[in-house]
Amino acid sequence: MISIIITVLGVVMILAAFLAIRTKNLLAAIISAGVISLLASVIYLMLAAPDVAMTEAAIGSGLTTIIFIFTLKKIRKGDLND
């Protein structure tokens, strides 16, 4: 049963990666990359690696996505010198 769930999550990760590459909207690409990282953390948790899952969720999904969104916002406003 767990292998089926992991397979489904892997397929969703591949679809999200394809969306991140093919979309023209940068915000959608950033969120899609965050979803990939979040799904990876769920897979790590299911594979009994809670320390890796927690690190991936915090750094890979949370912090990186927030930094990318903040940078996109700064670029669109033109405040690159701050």
Structure description:
The protein is mainly α. The chain contains three helices and no strands. It is flat. It has one domain (2-77). The longest helix is centred in the last third of the chain and has 28 residues, at 50-77. Helix 1 (2-22) runs antiparallel to helix 2 and helix 2 (26-46) packs antiparallel against helix 3 (50-77). It is 85% helix and 0% strand.
Question: Strands, helices and their partners?
Answer:
Layout: H1 2-22, H2 26-46, H3 50-77
Helix pairs in contact: 1-2, 2-3
Q: Top keywords for this entry?
A:
flat; mainly alpha; 82 residues; 3 helices
How many structural domains? 1
Shape: flat
Number of helices: 3
Number of strands: 0
Distance between the termini: 51 Å
